[in-house]
Specification:
Layout: H1 5-23, H2 30-40, H3 46-66, H4 70-112, H5 118-125, H6 136-147, H7 154-174, H8 179-183, H9 199-206, H10 210-220, H11 225-231, H12 237-259, H13 268-289, H14 295-313, H15 341-345, H16 351-366, H17 370-387, H18 390-406, H19 410-427, H20 430-450, H21 456-476, H22 479-495, H23 499-516, H24 519-535, H25 539-555, H26 562-575, H27 577-586, H28 588-613
Length: 614
């Protein structure tokens, strides 16, 4: 908005007038100050008033701090007291006039913006990171006001129509928001449920408007938002605004509900995380899809994606140590996190960006892209340090350690885990400390194995770190860290040939990873369980866990699916194909309970694919 010089001068004069009137004793109550503000401030110009008041407060405070003459200092102190009264009454004015102020400000920004910036102005008004984002009723008032400007520019009518249709469509969905969930109680989330049983299909049935209906139908078929964008290159401004309103309020409605399910392990934070990621990816795909032909829509989609990520990064359950979550699976989102990379490159170096880079970094590690993982985590360390986000900085030091282990660079892995351990203890970050202990122990076990050290005391020292980390994670009731601790202990005992103990820890790790929804850790633990059972000649359990691990890892596009595939191929060669098929059949029901009939049927195909790729 324009904060013209005359307006600034008007507000400076108003502030000075109130201060002088107060000093002369002509104002005897705060109510009089409020009434003067009420008469003097024009709706929609609050930002200008706030800047002028802030400048005036700073100047008077400097006078109080530097003045040596007692009389002048006393006057400056009284002026400061009066200015602070103005500040408190200004906050009251804001609270009581926030709806009118927000609508007026949005109207001013939209109607004074250039054609290329009108959509950006609208999306700023609905940004959930604002102190007062427009709600549904305020959006309806905004649409009504914009219609009065329709004669000046048709864009205003289109935006108004889009807002109204979007609200109508959302209200139809809102009444049926969770129907899909109750129809499919055994599997809650966006992934792995294509077709008629998906939430997208459920919402497509209740919304009568064409554009959101087509959009939901495309996602229900496990096609991406990219394909929608390619089909809708000539989409009108009105239709785009409608879809925007529907998706924004749909996402917020879901998250509000999931956030209230804190004690339900099938919902709660796990599904809030999934929802944030799913919708951020959808908007990023739309940004990519419209980039070549409709740059205004592309920029708008990127703007919404960054708004979502900033909101997500501020949530207490943001997964600094998480993995790829089960309800974020599904083939149309398999490589989804890649879409968040490019838009983030142009974002500023903020705390939120550091946290999103953390998520991208460990997701890339899960996909086997270690160099990209290291790059993301190194960037995140620097940004988090500059932003003063200590927990995020420590998390990325820990992730760097884990990624260097995957690259078999155990010296660097130990270095980063030691840095994380020292820093976490200095800052009192217990979650960071638990993960650092685990990473240090794990790195030392893997280094000792690589250098073929046989002295048991070396392994005992490393395992002691792992056990310390586990105790701390259990004390914190941190499921994600517990899963990592159990997993690392299991692998440590596996590499030291203590197979029964390894199985005990890996089974615990798998169960906890199921609760936390970490699909990568589930697959990884199953793969190592297969190896431990193979060493004990328990081929039935090796085939069962190896098949499940192979499938789950392949579903999130992790190259690590080849590890259990190789083991299964060896087992198949040793016990004959017929016996192998019999072991699969014996475990069919248990496997279907985890990966479904389609997953079970896909296992032989995966083994063939592995053999063809050798």
């Amino acid at each position: 908005m324009s904060d013209s010089l005359p307006l600034r001068e008007h507000y400076l004069a108003l502030i000075n007038d109130i201060i002088e009137t107060t000093l002369k004793g002509k104002i005897s109550s705060v109510e009089q100050v409020y009434q003067m503000l009420l008469k003097g401030i024009t709706s929609g110009t609050g930002e200008v008033f706030e800047l002028v008041l802030s400048d005036r407060l700073n100047i008077i405070q400097s006078q109080v701090d530097s003045e040596t003459d007692e009389l002048k200092k006393a006057k400056a102190t009284r002026s400061l007291r009066a200015a602070k009264t103005i500040q408190t009454q200004w906050q009251r004015w804001q609270e009581q006039n926030k709806a009118t102020e927000a609508i007026s400000l949005s109207m001013r920004e939209i109607t004074t913006a250039t054609a290329d910036e009108r959509l950006t102005a609208l999306l700023r008004a609905t940004d959930p990171n604002l102190k007062y984002p427009l709600n549904l009723s305020q959006l309806q008032q905004l649409a009504k006001s914009l219609q009065q400007f329709a004669g000046a520019n048709q864009d205003f009518q289109q935006i108004a129509d889009g807002i109204n249709r979007g609200i109508t469509s959302w209200q139809k969905i809102q009444a049926n928001l969770l129907n899909w969930m109750y129809e499919r109680k055994s599997s809650i989330g966006f992934g792995g449920i294509p077709g008629e049983n998906s939430p997208w299909a459920s919402w497509a049935k209740v919304v009568n408007s064409e554009v959101p209906q087509v959009f939901f139908q495309i996602l229900a078929k496990e096609q991406s938002a990219l394909e929608f964008a390619q089909q809708q290159q000539q989409i009108s401004l009105s239709n785009w605004v409608e879809l925007t309103i529907v998706l924004q309020f749909l996402q917020r409605g879901l998250i509000n509900w999931f956030d209230q399910q804190a004690y339900d392990i099938k919902a709660g934070p796990k599904l809030s995380i999934s929802t944030f990621l799913t919708f951020a990816v959808i908007w990023s795909q739309l940004a990519s899809g419209f980039q070549n032909q409709t740059i205004i829509y592309s920029n708008g989609a990127s703007q919404i994606m960054l708004q979502i990520l900033r909101t997500f990064a501020q949530r207490p359950y943001f997964p600094l140590y998480g993995g790829i979550f089960a309800s974020f699976s599904g083939s149309y989102l398999r490589d989804a996190l890649d879409y968040l990379d490019a838009p983030l490159r142009s974002a500023e170096g903020t705390q939120e960006k550091a946290r999103i880079l953390t998520l991208l970094g460990y997701s890339q590690r899960g996909l086997g892209r270690y160099d990209r993982s290291l790059d993301f985590h190194q960037q995140a360390v620097e940004i988090a340090r500059n932003a003063g986000d200590k927990a995020c900085e420590i998390a990325n030091l820990n992730h760097l350690s884990r990624t260097y282990v995957q690259q078999q660079n155990y010296g660097e892995a130990i270095n980063y885990s030691q840095r994380a351990l020292i820093y976490s203890r200095q800052t009192g970050d217990k979650t960071g400390e638990a993960n650092a202990l685990v990473n240090l122990g794990y790195s030392e076990v893997m280094q000792a194995k690589q250098t073929e050290i046989s002295e048991p005391e070396v392994y005992e020292s490393a395992i002691n770190y792992l056990e310390q980390g586990l105790k701390l994670a259990e004390k914190l009731n941190d499921l994600q860290s517990q899963a990592l601790c159990f997993s690392s202990l299991g692998i440590a005992y596996l590499v030291t040939a203590q197979y029964p103990t390894a199985i005990k820890y890996l089974e615990n790790a798998f169960r906890i990873a199921q609760v936390s929804g970490d699909l990568y850790l589930q697959g990884r633990n199953l793969a190592y369980l297969a190896e431990a059972n193979y060493h004990l000649a328990n081929y039935e359990k090796a085939v069962y866990s190896g098949s499940l691990g192979m499938y789950l890892l392949e579903q999130i596009a992790s190259d690590e699916w080849r590890q259990p595939a190789a083991l299964l191929t060896i087992i198949k060669g040793q016990i004959t194909t017929e016996k192998f098929q019999l072991l699969l059949q014996q475990n069919r029901q248990n496997m279907i309970a985890i990966i479904g009939v389609d997953g079970y049927d896909y296992i032989p195909t995966l083994l063939v694919k592995y053999q063809e790729d050798i």
